[in-house]
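Practice problem: predict the structure.
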Amino acid sequence: MTAWGLAQRVFTIVMGTVGTHSINGALYEKMPYDMAKDFTPISLIASAPNLLVVNNALPVKNVPELIAYMKANPNKLSFGSPGIGTSVHVSGELFKSLTGTTMEHVPYKGRQFAISDLIGGSIQVMLDNMPSALPMAKESNIRALAQTTATNWLAMFAPANVPRPVIDKLNAEVLRVFKLPEVQERLKTLGLDPVLSSPAELARHQASEITKWAKVVKDSGAKAQ
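Answer:
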């Protein structure tokens, strides 16, 4: 978190994610905060796709072959994630829903454990974050089949009821800083695509994401443990 002093007042702003500000509301029975009502949108910052990767021994070379294999072998495959409700997990659930396939979800206590088991063959599929999966695929430790559209995002939020002039000033400063070439280049080296917005655009994006992921979580039956 970062403290900003404006007009002799200090406001705490937070870098929210697809998890903290769109997925968790459907995943947890009780939340210590309301994802929408307790925050004032400032700006989107960046988005990132996931990479669909499989174990090298799996006899598929592309997405259609994977879907065909899964339909011919229902529940034979399993996919890993760094935990229930993570973007990696719900992306896998969304893939199943969109393709009409089934596979078991195996949650791990960290991405490094899931990747290790993917390489070893204990799990066969993963929709991992690009910064984590791409280097492994380039080294041929796992096979990349496809890149998703942006499924992960970062955005800045202020507390609820921050005065509009303050939000406008914060938005202008965020846009100025994140449009700097060196900042944009740094985001890209981290596997992130710079994406900036107005407060209203972020609010609409968040509302859409809450609706989308709530359905995915409900259909999957996932609950935080």
